[in-house]
Amino acid sequence: MEFTKGHGTGNDFVILPDPDGALDLTPGLVAAICDRRRGIGADGVLRVVRSAKHPEGAALAGETEWFMDYWNADGSYAEMCGNGARVFVRYLLDTGLATATDAALPVATRAGVVRARVDGEVVAVEMRRPRLYDASTTHLDGLTLAGTAVDVGNPHLVCPLPAGLDLPELDLTRAPQFDPVLFPAGVNVEFTAPGAPVEGTDGHVLMRVYERGSAETLSCGTGACAVAAVALRDAARDTGVVAVDVPGGRLTVTVTDDTCWLAGPAVLVATGTLTPNTLTTP
After folding, report:
1. What pTM value is reported for the model?
2. What is the pLDDT of residues 117-155, one digit of tens each?
3. What are the catalytic residues (predicted)?
4. Is 159 an annotated catalytic residue?
């Protein structure tokens, strides 16, 4: 089985080319591939399949040729992954499966079609505008933190830290607790702190994230979009540009009246061949 390894600000993925949907990809195999000691290691798997050849992409085949079949590290599905979409686009372009043009490159996902633009090392994807829809709380290491529920095609809970609590001190080795009624399919939980002003932006936020199905990751693209939307709301703005610093680097989020652009580096670092029947999980 051929693979490519790539990442977007440290959010890393194993990319599996499967244009005709022939791979027998199972939750167990995905979890084994993503295992960082027994497999290749990644936050998730991106299967590259033609929209027409995937049951969840067939309805979008008229809009775009390629469907991003994204799986979390534990073998569960996810509706959308912003950094994954950016790495997916980098793969399409570098392998010649798609060509960069002046028009935005469309990619099908479980959350609908996203569009991408490439400028050198930076890949930007246009997604739905984040929707802030409720207030909730999370419980972490004896703390109860208030947050805002945000829909970015997948669910998020954005929790600004109160004064006196430092972002690096949070223990994210265990999953934060959340309201299962509000988030029946689970939720990505973002913890934020204000950053110093960044020229050319309307805000700067520092972020850590615990992703459902993957634990803490170095970056989360849709999470950055959710965080930016909350930061703009708290600044009494409907639109704007927000720099979001994650442990893996910096992402730039541009919220418009109708959409949200996520921009940052996307890098392919290795290619190879894996032997599925040698992979085991604990």
Report:
1. 0.94
2. 999 899 999 999 999 999 999 999 899 999 999 999 999
3. 81, 220
4. no
